[in-house]
Design a protein that fits this description.
The protein is low in regular secondary structure and 26 residues long. The chain has one domain. The chain has no helices and no strands. The two termini are 16 Å apart. InterPro entries: P-loop_NTPase.
Length: 26
């Protein structure tokens, strides 16, 4: 849930996992 990252004021990392076939959907 990337929308929750950083809400506590602390640093946050986001890792996006995808396949090449997913690119047209984005």
């Amino acid at each position: 849930e990337s929308g929750r990252a950083g809400r506590d004021g602390l640093p946050a990392d986001c890792l996006l996992l995808y396949r090449p076939g997913d690119v047209p959907r984005q």
